[in-house]
Amino acid sequence: MATETFAHGHTELVAQFVSQLSTRTLNRFAEESRLDGESLKDAVDRYEIDYAWHILGSDRTREASVAVLEAGLPQSVTDEHRDIVAAILRSAAEKLAPDVLMSFDNDVPEQLGRLLLAWFEGHPVPAVEAAC
Prior knowledge:
Blueprint lengths: L1 H19 L3 E2 H10 L4 H8 L1 E3 H5 L2 H14 L6 H17 L4 E4 L4 H15 L10
Antiparallel strand pairs: 1-3, 2-3
Helix pairs in contact: 1-6, 1-7, 5-7
């Protein structure tokens, strides 16, 4: 079963995914905003900045990641695929420090989609048979 196989690869997938994320601490982001002559509030609003755990846990990020995955799979996304996407995002959010920020305007769905598509090539999730 793919879920059992996924359990063995979960830690490695999360580590690979987290290493690709573009994040900044609150202090670093505030410093960059100041250097750009912008208030922290204006920069947060303009770049849609929020805590990384919030962005990774959002429905918006999960659904966008599922859409990228679906576009690259030869079959429709199953509930098992959706569960795997949610598990990776949840684990990544838990792994990051609570003060780390990121933007909704980033390529998280594409990064996760590419990572999972490559992983599924070696560990395919069986297609669900349609009921007759």
